[in-house]
Write a structure and sequence with these properties.
With about 800 residues, the protein is α/β, with parallel strands linked by helices. Helices cover about 40% and strands about 20% of the residues.
Length: about 800
């Protein structure tokens, strides 16, 4: 068993019809490997239709027969649509035999064990069909009936016996190495070999149990939603997807019967090293929610959830002393039976205890309480709804508590309760307009000002200027967006200073040496933060930091980058970074990577988003080389100009990094990708101005032998001057992916020849700007404009949030 193995679980909505099955096969081709496990629910409404058939058996034989035949036709059509005739025949034969066996049952045959056996057929059919489809598409797969290895005894909420189940599962997996195992969800078997259904959301529970037993690294539950939202998006149009959710908050949400999660699903996650991710099978790239084990302090509500069809169990007790006794007995009895109420209220003056449950389990709880011998009169009342605010710290957040209760004024509230865990506020109401109430509470609680935490990586020339700019613009920035922005971290290549209470921007450099901690892995220290969003600003040129970008995304961080490494990396690396931010619903902005403060990346992207097509891009992309060749007229050797630029801080610390064209190449690759073109760095033809014999020398030795550089460039200049031209270092790209970076001789009146020193110019030709290219021109280097570009991206990110 390898930790690289993953488990994918697909619910009934993900297998609703033939096109859904094909989509699941496509997902598994893209996101799974040969050793992965797959757990499936019954296709569409198959289980509900089996329940309907069982109900009709005792009422109307003719209708029962028609119901079963409809289901048979549905399953048969799935097989025939998805598989070739030769492959389908075997499955159809098994299907017909099973429906014949079902058709022979009568109402008198339906014992609880037999009923469970009937209802498990949906998962069995899904497992066989998906395994056959995967194999047909070249992904070796085997169907596996979970009853062969999962062991559980019949109960109100059956629990899988992991000790008995583990060796049986290990044996099954050992027999089918190299195959995707498509496993039935929802069911196990008991000592007598009878089918035991695992209850509501049993397929999700069996998925995480099997994942824990198999030692998988991740369980992904694929359904018809992308994950957990701040409210049901069907009720609240502006509900937002939560990319990260604490495990205890997820468990509380599940306890409150949210349809996307179930408490028992989370138990194996809490007791193992599994990562749990929720994703949408209909739109795999629409984002996801990852459940984290971190139990940091929370600052309030994150989710507003609701539930219709709630029942109240009313326990009436005669004396106060007995009331306390009943409370104690319930505190033992209900958790043991895994029947924790949605909410509970004790009304001492009335001698009553109120317990709220879903209608699904209320009768079972009633039977349990009646059999327990409690000294209380018990009455079951229906016709209630529930609304709750969920989030760590919600019960101690005065704004959220007040806002929640204010929106309930005038509503038919039975009682309001705080969860003992402090993770939720719950209101139980007689039937109310749940949608309107959820919308009002969501709007009221989440209008509060967002708190944004900022981490600056790189405290050099640009980083220090950005800190000054943040100090100057912070008040205006916060007023503009209705958010607070707090610098909480500064890091360099060796050390970092992190303070979640905030760091004054102007003190970030003066106190850094006294406050900094050795090391570069500052991410774990962010586990205790309570900010709504975190933003990393990378103003380094670090390869190592760029390699951590996917990790930033997976931890829920946004990124603003002046670092060109990731944007110009090999396509596979670049796409992995883009995918990481898309899948976690985080943002990666990098306008400062090209043209410093000039809006080049934004412009190209906006043109594409508006329906235009980029045909070609050309220009002078290096402020350093722009300055050098504007000055280089033969009156001074090139090396003297280079040394002047170096001393003025216009070049990289080693000016050969400007002269070799790699910086311009990176910018061209980034622009190509923004233009919608696929371009690899090695596809760019780059002319380096660094003579080969000078490339490996020390910096001092390079300057000492710079006459070699002077001779070559003087020869190029002389030739250009004889032709009446000037030298400029140009980048060119066309729609066919032809990309060239190098020195060119241009007519003096050429648009690319007439610039102010240090200026960049970008000429964009597109379908709309074919005859008269769109030109962006201005300073393309310098600490002020680059720091400004970072602040511009921060403004842009704030608008996105």
């Amino acid at each position: 068993m390898t930790l690289k193995r993953q488990l994918h679980k697909f619910g009934g909505s993900s297998l609703a019809d033939a096109s859904c099955y094909r989509n699941v096969a496509h997902i598994l081709a893209q996101y799974s490997s040969a050793e992965d496990l797959v757990v499936v629910s019954a296709a569409g409404k198959t289980t509900n239709r089996l329940i309907q058939w069982l109900s009709l058996l005792s009422k109307d034989g003719r209708l029962a027969h028609e119901s079963l035949q409809d289901l048979r036709t549905f399953q048969q059509h799935l097989i025939e649509e998805l598989l070739e005739e030769t492959v389908a025949d075997e499955l159809l034969t098994s299907l017909h035999l099973e429906f014949s066996e079902l058709g022979q049952l009568t109402d008198s045959d339906i014992t609880p064990a037999r009923q469970a056996w009937v209802l498990g057929h949906g998962e069995l059919w899904s497992s066989r069909l998906l395994a056959a489809l995967l194999t047909h598409k070249g992904m070796a797969a085997r169907a596996l009936d979970s009853r062969r290895f999962l062991r559980a005894e019949r109960a109100a909420q059956p629990e899988v016996d992991r000790g008995r189940s583990l060796p049986l599962l290990q044996n099954e997996l050992a027999q089918h190495s190299g195959h995707r195992m498509v496993i039935t969800g929802f069911m196990a078997s008991n000592q007598a070999g009878e089918t035991v259904l695992l209850g509501r959301n049993g397929s999700d529970y069996s998925a995480t149990v099997i994942g824990a037993l198999a030692g998988v690294s991740r369980v992904t539950i694929w359904s018809d939603v992308a994950g957990v939202y701040s409210a049901d998006p069907r009720l609240v149009s502006d509900a937002c997807l939560l990319p990260l959710l604490r495990l205890d908050e997820a468990d509380e949400l599940a306890r409150l019967a949210a349809p996307v999660l179930h408490s028992r699903t989370l138990q194996p996650v809490a007791q193992s090293a599994i990562d749990l991710t929720l994703r949408c099978s209909l739109q795999p790239e629409s984002g996801s929610t990852r459940v984290e084990r971190v139990l940091a302090s929370g600052r309030g509500a994150k989710i507003i959830t609701s539930l219709d069809e709630v029942c109240l169990l009313e326990l009436s007790v005669s004396r106060a002393q007995t009331l306390a006794q009943v409370e104690r007995e319930l505190a033992t009895l209900l958790p043991k039976a895994q029947l924790i109420p949605l909410a509970q209220a004790v009304e001492t003056d009335k001698g009553q205890i109120l317990l709220a449950y879903t209608a699904e389990v209320a009768n079972g709880v009633l039977a349990l309480l009646q059999d327990s011998g409690l000294p209380a009169e018990i009455r079951l009342r229906d016709g209630f709804t529930m609304v709750a605010a969920v989030g760590a710290g919600v019960v101690i957040n005065p704004v959220h508590c007040h806002g929640f209760q204010q929106q309930l004024k005038g509503q038919p509230v039975e009682f309001i309760a705080e969860a003992e865990s402090g993770l939720s506020l719950v209101a139980v109401l007689r039937q109310a307009d749940t949608q309107a109430l959820v919308q009002l509470i969501h709007q009221n609680l989440f209008q509060a000002q967002k708190r944004i935490g900022l981490i600056l990586c790189g405290k050099g020339n640009i980083g220090s200027r950005w800190l000054e700019l943040l100090e100057e613009e912070k008040v205006a920035l916060e007023k503009r967006h209705g958010m607070s922005f707090t610098l909480i971290g500064v890091a360099d290549s060796r050390r970092y200073w992190l303070d979640l209470q905030g760091i004054e921007p102007l003190q970030a450099l003066t106190r850094f040496d006294d406050e900094a901690t050795d090391g570069t892995d500052w991410l774990p220290a962010l586990g205790q933060h309570d900010y709504d969003e975190l933003v990393v600003l990378d103003v380094t040129a670090s390869q190592a930091l760029a390699e951590r970008y996917p990790e930033f995304a997976s931890h829920g961080l946004h990124l603003i980058s002046a670092n060109k490494v990731a944007g110009s990396a090999k396509g596979k690396v670049y796409r992995a970074v883009v995918d990481a931010f898309e899948k976690s619903s985080r943002h990666w902005l990098y306008n400062a990577t090209v043209g410093a403060g000039l809006p080049v990346n934004h412009t190209v992207k906006d043109l594409r988003d508006s329906g235009d097509t980029i045909i070609a891009v050309s220009g002078i992309f290096s402020g350093t080389l722009s300055w050098l060749f504007q000055q280089f007229d033969g009156s001074l050797p090139f090396s003297q100009l280079l040394e002047q630029a170096w001393q003025q801080g216009l070049t990289e610390p080693d000016p050969r990094h400007d002269l070799d064209g790699s910086d311009v190449m990176r910018k061209l690759v980034i622009l190509a990708r923004e233009s919608g073109l696929t371009l690899e760095p090695e596809q760019v033809k780059v002319e380096s101005l660094v003579p080969e014999e000078l490339a490996a020398l020390s910096l001092d030795a390079f300057f000492e032998r710079s006459d070699v550089l002077d001779e070559r460039l003087q020869a190029r200049l002389s030739k250009a001057q004889r032709e009446g031209k000037v030298l400029r270092y140009i980048a060119r790209l066309d729609k066919n992916g032809h990309a060239v970076v190098g020195l060119e001789a241009l007519e003096p009146e050429h648009a690319l020849a007439n610039l102010l020193p240090c200026d960049n110019i970008f000429a964009i030709e597109s379908r709309w700007y074919r005859d008269n290219p769109l030109v962006i021109r201005g300073p393309g280097a310098g600490r002020d404009v680059t720091a400004g570009a970072l602040l511009s991206d921060l403004n842009r990110l704030a608008r996105l949030l």
